Amino acid sequence: MTKPDAGPSPSASQDTLTAWHEAGHAVVYVLQGRSLRYVTLRPRGTGRAGFTAVRPRAVELSTVAVVAHAGPLAQARHVLDTTSDIELRREGITADDVRLDAYLHGGHDDLQLIAQARRAYGLPARQADPWAGMAQDLLDRYWPQVAQIAAGLLEHRTLTGQQVRHYLDAAPTL
After folding, report:
1. pLDDT tens digits for the chain (174 residues)?
2. 95-108 CB burial, b ≥16 within 10 A, e <16
3. 93: which DSSP letter?
4. pTM above 0.90, yes or no
5. 169: Cβ–Cβ under 8 A, 6 or more apart, which residues?
6. Residue 22: which of 144, 121, 131, 151 has the closest Cα?
7. Is 118 helix (H, G, I), strand (E, B) or coil?
8. In sequence order, what are the residues at sequence separation of 6 or more whose Cβ sits closer than 8 angstroms to the Cβ of residue 87?
9. Which among 55, 73, 132, 154 has the fewest CB atoms less than 10 Å away?
């Protein structure tokens, strides 16, 4: 996509993408009844832009795969929602390109978890997995809350699990 003449700095732009990515993970994780400690844009360690910390306990690999898909899918939807069709066409970018970029540049750990689940369930390489659709459905139904959590992350840099649950508890019943 083209660079704006006087837009946000690259780090601000990366923070925005990371906030949407981590908000997607956090929302889907909590919606699956899991206990979230916090979600942050201040990760420990190098090579990470954000992190969703969960309470350790045994979780089905299929549940992990749904959560793994949620981050890149939320990131991609945000990009598609905020980029005009004209700009995408001018740059020769499709919606699939945006989704692929979100997985490749924002979801290295996510891809590893998805691959692990695919192997465990014996899914052939060319067969689509069911977990992306499940994640997308949850994100679509709770998109306003994903947006609120992303905005909260951009403002505060870290949200507790309780704060994330508060956003979700305020959601209308679907």
Report:
1. 444 444 444 455 889 999 999 999 999 999 998 889 999 987 665 555 676 766 556 678 999 999 999 999 999 999 999 999 999 999 999 999 999 999 998 767 899 999 999 999 999 989 999 999 999 999 999 999 999 999 999 999 999 999 999 999 987 765
2. eeebbebbbeebbe
3. -
4. no
5. none
6. 151
7. helix
8. 1, 2
9. 55
